Amino acid sequence: MQEVANTxxxxxxxxxxxxxxQIMIGLIVGGxxxxxxxDWGNAVYFLRDIFINLIKSIIAPLVxxxxxVGIAGAGALRKVGRMGIKALVYFExxxxxxxxxxxxxxxxxxxxxxxxxxxxxxxxxxxxxxSHPKTLIETIVHVFPSSVxxxxxxxxxxxxxxxxxxxxxxxxxxxxxxRPIVRAMESLSQVxxxxxxxxxxxxxxxxxxxxxxxxxxxxxxxxxxxxxxILSLYLALVxxxxxxxxxxxxxxxxxxxxxxxxxxxxxxxxxxxTSSESALPRxxxxxxxxxxxxxxxxxxxxxxxxxxxxxxxLYLAMASVFVAQAAETTMGWHMxxxxxxxxxxxxxxxxxxxxxxxxxxLVILLATLNTFLPAGLGPIGVAIIxxxxxxxxxxxxxxxxxxxxxxxxxxxxxxxxFDDRRARVFGTPAEADLNLKSGDVAFADAVAQGD
Length: 451
Hints:
By secondary structure, the chain is mainly alpha-helical. 78% of the residues lie in helices and 0% in strands. The chain contains 22 helices and no strands.
């Protein structure tokens, strides 16, 4: 009689916690160090820079190989086009919901009432003013690279995705002659996931260093001055997760417990480092382990980092109305609900492709405020927000990551390709056995490392 596989997780010794627990410990210890010894926080910040550089070196080959393997082996142009349309429709619905939840919360809490817009000569704001958000046409043109090598060097994920999709379709079109390239890409994909596992071993130290620097440089004074805005943002993010993500999870029949288990580690990493890039490779790996096909992960998640930034979109809605409320306090200028809705519709367009712009959210925010507010108030408002932007960036980056992970599961379910069997065994000894049988050595190693 065949023995039934044990799907219960093995107990890990207390002295060898999972990577998620290690990251949370790093968050707490780093925050304490930044508060008690700010100079130490500044001294160890270089660890974050090294980690981000290593992660950036992973992204281009990982995205390229993942998309090529998935699409070249999975299908025709029609299938890719259908998946892309579904993804864009989903992105637009969810980001629009984020805008209007942000608008509702900021009008309820009114964090800008009582804030005075004092003139500022910040060099940072001058730099931001020199940047400009791309128009819709410019964003579309930007998607297609003139040199894929240059795109990979810059880490322009959207251009890498576009080239990878076309390259994969060309491989699929030539049939058997393209199989050696697909096999090479399969090997490269496995190598890059293994490389990611090695880099992630240092994540707890990096998270601690990043938190120590953030608390050490920002201090509690800045936090208290704009506490109302910060608390309003985090309240809105929590409501958005419960209301919108919760509804999506129920409608798409996403296995909640396994999904939370899959995203908690990359979400903690994104929160601490305020960098979507730092968590992208691990998030892609976790979604594949959860049961999302490789070609969907490789296409939807990188694309989502330009078109599905739920946390950043919600932040833009709140920050823009916050400055408008402060303008009312300062000079009696009032922005009505109709103007606010018009501003939200503008943000629906200008926030797309936001990841391709340096200091993206602040650039979009300043451009929008300059359009709707009296002359000169936009830069002053952004200067005030800039002081606590990094603290708010932690929350919005974390929600961006969760939203893009959820998007991959939704599109996989919509396409009828989500692997429920893999989802059921996620994070258990049975998953490691399944990974080894299918040749996914890096995934098996990730199970052993801890999720």
